């Protein structure tokens, strides 16, 4: 049990505060703790009449050191989900567990035990704990990183490889080309729907079970697609595969957060960031040669092969990495060995039933999408970009196969510049990260979220540039290299825009970051799925040049979005009920700061009490 020293003056709220606000007003003691005989790190949480560590706070006392730009572990307990899926989330969301020397955790964690006020011991990792994934050998962490990156590549590859030959199933099943396009649409819709379910499930049961189950499901349902006898079977299996394949794309960011420390993540994230975008570029290239020489069904067999390899590698070589699940098992083991039920984890002290947590996670993304201008307009921007990417998969065959008479395999080669652009941007990503770290230092560790938009402001122009090059070099009489070259700036700029958007959303909606990202993913996938359905008609009616130019003008108009939020984002966040607005004191949301201000008199000091909400 930890011991604490009391102080003669303690500021106590004069009225009831929300849990998150109350937690912001509780301070830990600097007193040392007694060593605990068990080989785990724990924190004792005192409830009821027990006293928690207190620190003097008054208006005349020197201002405490500003909190870092992160979500405190206390706040995480009140969030519906903590899954992260981007480099920004890896840096911005605080982790619940933290190793500290001497066996002491300098956090006061509210514990909820139904109907009782008692002492509980929160099980966490100890210093240099070999069971902490961050302490695994670097070689093994790199292996796990490359396995999950390969899984993302396989998933992204599966989304685009069938675009190499959509005419094959249309001819065999006697349906139109537009109906055949639905095999892309239903798959991409699954990409948007799946994360709403799989993300919270990974928080409850760990990442590994979700990886293993969903990939196995995808492998199984790829087989009936490869041997389908009618278009209905093909579409149903593609829809199931889209939902199942969405899980790895959702969880990989969290897996990297589990494995790597903040200062180590730059290179692994650069290696990973290319995988989800390289897959769509390589898919049509490989698919073109397969369909020309083996037929359209091999476009599904190759998906099966890659997905099966990914499933085998994940199942038999990558262990559970999610700290909450590992600590849950450790707490259960300690309870069994000692007969003491005071050993608890984050999951055990969360009083909300599973159904309520799922409901919160399902509803919150839509609240953010329709109530928050930042989330809405950035989601629109990312939807446009995602739609452009999938429209390219349809536009390339129109320009090269219809316009120039090329085969599917030769048309697939035209995606090489797009792939090179993706790889080049991944190579340059550490430079962007280094610049951001410089800004962090410049702002004394608390840069505003808007600095995340700087890469987007610089590279957003590459998208319309690439589209205009593609448009006005697509005349059948001109050299083939013109439209192909247009893919390079699109591929190069896409990753920078995508990562910058995720970074900004996470920094702006720290405790709601996962919901903000889920909202963006949902609307992005819906638009990307629908865009491919009218691409051919648009190119036939407007012509190759003006159809691509229309997309370029849309991309050009969207370039204003990052500039607006760079200059006005702070003002928008100030009046948001969900976004974080930073001032000199804390990182509370507007609603929480108002409640704190109402609850506390600047000149009033109360008798000392435990500050804890149960």
Report on the structure:
With 614 residues, this protein is mainly alpha-helical. The chain is built from 22 helices and three strands. The protein has a domain at 133-323 and 349-574: Growth Hormone, Chain: A, CATH 1.20.1250.20. The relative contact order is 0.15. Mean pLDDT is 75; it is low at 1-96, 100-109 and 583-614.
CATH superfamily of the domain at 133-323 and 349-574: MFS general substrate transporter like domains
Low-confidence stretches: 1-96, 100-109, 583-614
What proportion of the residues form beta strands (DSSP E)? under 5%
**What's the number of extended β-strand segments?**
3
Terminal Cα span: 19 Å
Can you give the mean pLDDT?
Answer: 75
CATH architecture verdict of the domain at 133-323 and 349-574: Up-down Bundle
The Rg value, from CA coordinates, equals 26 Å
What general form does the structure show? globular
Secondary structure tally, helices: 22
Structural class: mainly alpha
Main β-sheet, in a few words? Answer: 3 strands, mixed
CATH topology of the domain at 133-323 and 349-574: Growth Hormone, Chain: A
Helix content: 55-70%
What is the chain-wise order of helices and strands? HEHHEHHHHHHHHHEHHHHHHHHHH
Give the strand order, joined by hyphens, for the main sheet.
1-2-3
The CATH first-level class of the domain at 133-323 and 349-574 comes to: Mainly Alpha
């Amino acid at each position: 049990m930890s011991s604490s020293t009391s102080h003669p003056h303690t500021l106590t709220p004069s009225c009831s505060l929300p849990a998150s606000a109350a937690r912001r007003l509780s301070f830990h003691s600097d007193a040392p703790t007694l060593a605990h005989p068990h080989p785990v790190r724990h924190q004792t949480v005192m409830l009821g009449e027990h006293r928690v560590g207190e620190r003097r706070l008054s208006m005349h006392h020197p201002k405490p050191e500003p909190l870092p730009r992160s979500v405190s572990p206390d706040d995480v307990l009140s969030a519906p989900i903590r899954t992260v899926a981007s480099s920004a989330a890896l840096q911005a969301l605080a982790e619940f567990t933290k190793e500290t020397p001497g066996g002491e955790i300098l956090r006061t964690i509210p514990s909820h035990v139904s109907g009782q006020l008692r002492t509980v011991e929160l099980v966490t990792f100890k210093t240099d704990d070999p069971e902490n994934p961050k302490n695994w050998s670097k070689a093994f962490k790199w292996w796990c990183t490359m396995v999950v990156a390969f899984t993302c590549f396989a998933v992204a590859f599966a989304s685009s490889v069938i675009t190499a030959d959509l005419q094959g199933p249309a001819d065999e099943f006697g349906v139109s080309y537009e109906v055949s396009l639905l095999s892309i649409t239903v798959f991409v819709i699954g990409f948007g729907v799946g994360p709403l379910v799989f993300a919270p499930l990974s928080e409850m049961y760990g990442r590994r079970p979700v990886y293993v189950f969903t990939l196995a499901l995808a492998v199984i349902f790829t087989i009936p697609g490869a041997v389908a006898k009618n278009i209905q079977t093909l579409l149903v299996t593609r829809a199931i595969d889209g939902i199942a394949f969405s899980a790895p794309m959702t969880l990989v960011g969290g897996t990297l957060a589990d494995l790597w420390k903040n200062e180590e993540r730059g290179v692994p994230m650069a290696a990973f960031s290319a995988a989800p975008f390289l897959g769509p570029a390589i898919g049509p290239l490989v698919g073109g040669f397969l369909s020309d020489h083996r037929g359209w069904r091999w476009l599904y067999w190759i998906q099966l092969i890659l997905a099966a390899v990914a499933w085998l590698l994940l199942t038999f070589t990558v262990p559970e990495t999610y700290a909450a699940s590992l600590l849950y098992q450790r707490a259960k083991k300690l309870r069994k060995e000692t007969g003491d039920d005071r050993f608890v984890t984050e999951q055990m002290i969360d009083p909300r039933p599973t159904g309520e947590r799922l409901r919160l996670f399902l509803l919150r993304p839509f609240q953010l999408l329709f109530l928050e201008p930042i989330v809405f307009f950035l989601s629109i921007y990312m939807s446009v970009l995602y739609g452009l990417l999938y429209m390219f998969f349809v536009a390339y065959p129109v320009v090269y196969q219809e316009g120039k008479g090329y085969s599917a395999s030769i048309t697939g080669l035209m995606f090489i510049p797009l792939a090179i652009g993706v790889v080049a941007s991944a190579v340059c990503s550490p430079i962007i990260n280094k610049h951001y770290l410089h800004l962090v230092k410049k702002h004394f560790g608390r840069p505003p979220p808007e600095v995340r938009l700087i890469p987007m402001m610089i590279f957003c122009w590459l998208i319309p540039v690439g589209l205009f090059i593609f448009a006005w070099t697509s005349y059948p009489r001109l050299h083939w290299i013109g439209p192909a070259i247009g893919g390079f700036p699109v591929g190069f700029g896409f990753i920078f825009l995508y990562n910058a958007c995720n970074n900004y959303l996470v920094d702006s909606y720290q405790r709601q970051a996962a919901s903000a990202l889920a909202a963006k993913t949902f609307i992005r996938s819906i638009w990307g799925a629908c865009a491919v359905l009218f691409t051919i008609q648009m190119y036939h009616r407007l012509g190759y040049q003006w159809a691509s130019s229309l997309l370029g003008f849309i991309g050009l108009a969207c370039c204003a979005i990052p500039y607006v939020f760079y200059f006005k984002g702070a003002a928008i966040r100030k009046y948001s009920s969900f976004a974080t607005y930073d001032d000199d004191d804390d990182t509370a949301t507007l609603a929480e700061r108002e409640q704190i201000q109402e609850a506390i008199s600047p000149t009033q000091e109360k008798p000392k009490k435990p500050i804890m909400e149960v």
